[in-house]
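One chain is below:
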Amino acid sequence: MTTKSKSLYLLLIAALLGASLLTAARPAALPLTGSPDATIAAAPAAKNKLTVTKVEAPGVFTFTVQQSGNSVPSAAGVVGQYAEASKRGSIGLLAHNYLAGGSFSALKNGQKIIVTFSDGSTKTYVVYNTLTYQATDPNDFSQPFLNSKGKKMTAREVFSQAYKSNLVVFQTCIYKDGHSSWGVMFIQAKLSGK
């Protein structure tokens, strides 16, 4: 192999690696929040960034927020800050539906959400939308989902719809037809205009 051939070969490899990193910006699977042993690989929280320490929906719930990477906390009264959502500029809060996530369905449009950060500051958000998707395989959230109109969507497409910049998003599984992870629910809240 000549020096020129080696250079072209290395350039091609670098381009392929770059393309795969761009594709990886959205997860191929969503965390299972309905089954006690279902998580995706944990990723460390970003350093030197404000993290969420508490979330409150007045009159509904107050939870401690744990920096759990991309895994779902298994303690009562705790939600996890989803690292993948942070990469999209949103605050993703994960919980199993048989623990803290069971309270998420009580959030209705207009509900205020108060988020406390690691420096003690707070921001107020308002719930404005709920998204629900049925899993085509309740045991594998890398498989397609069905939206409310029955259209198939990949986990990446669902993630992109749910986690938009500057939102707080509560994610948990939907229990239905005897399956703790029949589907997934996202409750979206945007910054309050006060």
Q: What stands out?
A: Confidence is low (pLDDT under 50) at residues 1-25, 35-48. Helices lie at 3-23, 83-87, 155-162. Strands lie at 52-57, 61-67, 78-82, 91-94, 112-117, 122-135, 145-146, 152-153, 167-176, 179-191.
